[in-house]
Structures are given as C-alpha cells and as structure tokens.
Amino acid sequence: MNAMVLPSAASLSPRDPWAMVPSLGNLDAYISAVNRLPMLTADEEVSLAQRLQQHSDLDAAGRLVLSHLRLVVSLSRQYVGYGLPQGDLIQEGNVGLMKAVKRFDPEQGVRLVSYATHWIKAEIHEYVLKNWRMVKVATTKAQRKLFFNLRSMKRQFKAEAADGQTHRMSLSEAEIETVARELNVAREDIIEMETRFAGGDVALEAGSDDDDEAVAPIAYLADERQEPTRLLEARRMDELAGPGLLRALDALDARSRRIVEERWLHVNDDGSGGMTLHDLAAEYGVSAERIRQIEVAALKKMRSALVAQA
C-alpha cells in the first residue's frame, strides 16, 4: 500500500522529520516514524489552524495532520480484532483525520485530538462494516452502534467469567438483558445481531483453486427461469403481447383502433411517438378531451378482451 501524499510534503525540507513518514507497506517502520514526529503545543495548534482557516495554508494543514498520525495508529489498534489489515485501518483513519483537520475550528476551545477522534473512528467503522464480511451485518445507525458495542461487551463478559474456562459463544439471558439495558435496544435486535456474528460467509461459486470435482453451493440453487410455471407464464405473456394484442385491437372500431395505435403503438423513424391528442382532435374535428375519452374507453375494452383470452 502506498503512503498517503500529504498536502505539505512539497513545502518541507528533506531533513525535516515531518517529511520522514515511510510507506504503509512497511507497517513497523511507519508506526515507528509517526511516533517520533513532534507533538504540537496548544498555541502551535491554534496558530496552524488559524492559518488554515483564514489563508487555506496547506503547509499548516500538513503539520496538523502529521502531528496526529500517532492518534490514528493508536485508535486503529482497537479494531485489529476484526481480522482486517492494520495498514488498511490506519489508511482509512488517516482519511478521517484529514476531514477533521479541514473542519476544525480553533475558536471552539477544543483540542484537535478530541475533535479528530470522532472523524477517525467514523471512517474506520465504515471500512470495518464494508469489509468484515461479504454481506453487510449492519446498515442502520442503530445496528452500527450495536455491532461495535456488542463485540466489546462480549469480550467483557468473557473476561468476567468466573470459571476461568472458555466462555460460551452465545449470550445468556442475563447477558442479553444487561446489553439491552445498557445500550437501550430491544432484546430481539441483540439476538439478531448475535446470530449475524455467529454466521459465516459462504461463496456461492467455487474458487479457481478448488477441486475440479467439487460442487459449488450455487449448483443447488434452483433456476427460476426454468421453473415450469414460470415457463408457462412467460409463454402466455408472449402470446398476449403478440396474437392476443392483435385480437384485442380487432375488437375496436376503426377510429378507436387508430387512436390507440397512434398513441401507444406507433413509433417514427426518429424514435418519437405517434400523433398527439391535439393532432388527432384536429383530424377528427373534435376536442382533445373527446379523443382522450375515446382512448380510455378503447383501452378498457382491450383490457377486458385480454383478460378473457387469459
């Protein structure tokens, strides 16, 4: 994975430690480097934030970002248990950090470290939810909150197990009640999320390196297109759309049929439709409203004829 190109990189001296951030491809070297970057004092942070806010100073933005890269590394460690590469977690957290720097207001009296934590976690959360499983386990805001808090509370329950043995995988009734009370969610939502945790992903199609004689799960799924009733239904629809439609048109008088054909079936060479209500009204010497009434009555008669054929 390539290192992120920060906006201040071009303005920094090669000897400046701020510019010495290696690629995330070497994770240990990256973490070691960002932990050596100097921290900003409160006054320096306010000064840089004001320069960014008032003058769009990219060098100031870069210094604010670089001084908080260690915060992203620290927060990313909380999510390594999801089985995702820490380098990817850091990369996503860095995106959140840059969003925070862009929106940071030094006049609010809050340090950037406190403000940026929310943005960093939000980006990491989004990445985890998109990549933890092939199928999303949490989509609504409430489900996302439950997803992360439930995993944390399950680890707490396991640590508090008195017997010292491996804790059971599912929650007990008492633990479900505790989670429901502390998170203010319904028991049913907790049970559903617990079920999603327990389930795994199954690839429908066999991988390229699988046994040639193995049968992939997709082979057991029925093809609804070949289901007998679907075939009969499709054949009947083709019949109604062809000969059936012609028989329904034959049931109309000449004027009604021409109005329907011009309004619904006629297509010009340029792709445009047939005559408008006003065109037909001028031809037959009646009002456009009268043409519309004839059209409605004709379509109703055709619909009855098609139903009778079905």
Secondary structure elements and their pairing?
Elements: H1 27-36, H2 42-55, H3 58-66, H4 69-76, H5 86-103, H6 112-131, H7 141-159, H8 173-183, H9 187-198, H10 228-250, H11 254-265, H12 277-284, H13 288-309
Account of the 3D structure:
With 310 residues, this protein is mainly alpha-helical. The chain folds into three domains: 9-131, Four Helix Bundle (Hemerythrin (Met), subunit A), CATH 1.20.120.1810; 141-198, no CATH class; 225-309, Arc Repressor Mutant, subunit A (Orthogonal Bundle). Helix content is 60%, strand content 0%. It is built from 13 helices and no strands. The chain has helices at 27-36, 42-55, 58-66, 69-76, 86-103, 112-131, 141-159, 173-183, 187-198, 228-250, 254-265, 277-284, 288-309. Helix 4 (69-76) packs across helix 5, helix 5 crosses helix 6 (112-131) and helix 10 (228-250) packs across helix 13 (288-309). Residues 1-15 have low confidence and may be disordered.
In a nutshell, what does this entry contain?
The chain has 310 residues and is mainly α. It has helices at 27-36, 42-55, 58-66, 69-76, 86-103, 112-131, 141-159, 173-183, 187-198, 228-250, 254-265, 277-284, 288-309. Residues 1-15 have low confidence and may be disordered.
List keywords for this structure.
310 residues; mainly alpha; Four Helix Bundle (Hemerythrin (Met), subunit A); Arc Repressor Mutant, subunit A; 3 domains; elongated; disordered N terminus
